[in-house]
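Lay summary. Proteins are chains of building blocks that fold into shapes, and those shapes determine what they do. In this project we predict the shape from the chain. Here is one chain we studied, written as its sequence of building blocks.
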Amino acid sequence: MADLFADKTGQKHVTNRFPVPVDVVADTAYLNSITGETLQLYYWNSNVLTVDAGQAAGTLVIGKLAFTGVLDSLGAMIGNNADTSLTFTTGTVLTTIKPFRADLAEAPDKATLEQVATAVTSGFTSGQYCVDHRNGIIYGIKATTGASDTVAYKVSTQTTGGGSVITDKIDLIKVGGTTYSLGTGVMAASMPVTLATDDTQFGAVGSASDVDGNIHAQLRYIGENAGGAIPYANFKSPDDFTATYTSNVTITLSGTPFTVESAHVAYIKYIPSGGNGAEILVNGQKGVTITISSNVITVDGAGTPFASGDAYEVGINGQEKAFDASTNSTMVSSLNNVWNQYTDSETLVTAQDLTAAYADFGAEIDVRGYNTLGVFVVSDVNDSENVTLKALAKTTSGGTDEFELESNGSYELWTTGASDAKTYYEFEVDAIPFIQLQAIAGTVGGTAGDLTIYITKKY
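And here is the predicted shape, written in a compact code that computers can read:
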């Protein structure tokens, strides 16, 4: 038995001229038989591809089928010289099919078509030809002066057809097995739309002669009004001033923060008293011009849009509200006034006796978010001497660890021979969450001195 695979004429490489084969033939396709197609032959006249006009026998020619992916006789797979669906009606110009040597066709990737044709027909005699079934190309050596022939073949497509034409549209009557109707719209090659005279989708169109005008008017309205964006304005009524109906084309402004000129007016939004058909008139758009004189706004190019009882929003642009032109500065108002940066005074301890060891005076103090702790001390000296007050830092509320302040952490309240006094002290606490005050007397004496303490906190 002969080795059917000894002749290695198949494709070896993927190139720009020969793509991946599986990309060419569609899955789940229709089998179509092409008949009556005229195959025009071409030849090269001084390297220029030229229509065959009865060139002599022995001339190298090429022809291109209308469809690619020529199948075998069954229409099951891409054909080859041993099994092809391609037949000639006359069959006298090209008579004997030979293997198509794809390896020669694909090898010169940058070769001209003439060079490819010469390569794949090398050794051919008159009448012999080969078929590139995948790309629908025929190469051959003419046996007669014939310039064309009629061919028939099978291809696989995703649309139905037959004869010399494949259907060039997709039938949308059924989608997924379900029947659909296009309604009253009639689609032709130029895609006009036919509407009944009572069709209200584009308004009352009347007769067919004015359908086109109505459609264009409606589409223009949709395009012009899409989005409904309102231009920017940094002053608006009724928040910054008042806009009042004057006539069907005029509005009077009052209480404006500055003298309004025509160039300041950005837009007018008016809402009819009935609540329907609100519109936005933008100065300088769609032929609308808005001018103002002595605080009376006049609208031109919008018909007579206003009516008594309508609601209005007028937007004007002026110097930013916080900008002071006289000083070229922006005004800033503090939301936390100076008198609100202190907490109210609170009593920490009242007449607590001094001891010979440091003792807590009052509960720990929450100073989170504050910068300064103010301490007001009322000293009752009695027999005590050398009294010191200090602040200890704590990282957590109720924590046992207490930290000495490295600077400004203590004050000597009095030494010896002192008299009763009232004194104010400060501790910097901007990075401290909690403070514990303590006091000690070097000499307590027969009657211990005592302290009354009030505190405030400052941001």
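What the prediction tells us: The longest helix spans residues 211-225.
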